[in-house]
Amino acid sequence: MQPKVRTCLGFKDEAEEAARFYVSVIPDSVFEGAFRREPDGPAILVSFTLAGTPYQALNMGCETIRNEACSISVMTKDQRETDELWEKLLAGGGSEIQCSWLKDRYGVRWQIVPEALPRMFMDEDRGAAERAFQAMLGMVKIDLAKVEAAFRGDSA
C-alpha cells in the first residue's frame, strides 16, 4: 500500500544518487523506484523508504535552497551506531554543525540522536535533565558518555 504522505526532498539533478546513498547508509531502508520520462533518461522523481519512513526525491533542474529548520532525525541505539552513521553521512563533503546536526554532501541536514538523549532531557529530575542539556549544547557530534556523566552530576 502506498503511503498517503511522503516528505519530498528537492535536488538540482542528484535525486537518485542521493536516495541511493541514503538507503545504503540507513539500515532497513529500500530504494523503491524512479520515474523517468525516457527509459534511459535521468530520474525525475524517486521513491525510497528510510527505516520505514517514506520519502521522495525530486530533480528540480535548478539549485535548491535548504531551510535550516528542516532536518531528518535518526535515533541511534548507542555511541557506536551514532559514530558510524555520523561518519557515513559526512563522507564525500558533508559538514558538522552542532548539537547532533550535520549537513551531508547534498546539503540535506540530519540530526543523529542517541535514543538515551531525549530520555535524559525529559527526566523528572529537572536538574539532571538541565545538566545533560547543557553538556549537549557544547558538542557537535553527541558524546553520550559525557552527557550521561553530566546527567549523573559526575564532575569528570
Q: How would you describe what is shown here?
A:
This protein is an alpha/beta fold and 156 residues long. It has two domains: 1-65, 2,3-Dihydroxybiphenyl 1,2-Dioxygenase, domain 1; 66-156, 2,3-Dihydroxybiphenyl 1,2-Dioxygenase, domain 1, CATH 3.10.180. The chain has five helices and eight strands; from the N terminus they run βαββββαβββααα. The protein has helices at 15-25, 79-90, 116-121, 126-137, 144-152, and strands at 7-11, 30-36, 43-50, 53-59, 72-76, 95-96, 101-103, 109-114. The strands form two sheets. Strands 1-4-3-2 form a four-stranded mixed beta sheet. Strands 5-8-7-6 form a four-stranded mixed beta sheet. A hairpin with a 5-residue loop joins strand 7 (101-103) and strand 8. Helix 4 packs antiparallel against helix 5 (144-152). It is elongated and about 60 Å long. The model has no long low-confidence stretch (mean pLDDT 94).
Give the arrangement of secondary structure elements:
Elements: E1 7-11, H1 15-25, E2 30-36, E3 43-50, E4 53-59, E5 72-76, H2 79-90, E6 95-96, E7 101-103, E8 109-114, H3 116-121, H4 126-137, H5 144-152
Parallel strand pairs: 1-4, 5-8
Antiparallel strand pairs: 2-3, 3-4, 6-7, 7-8
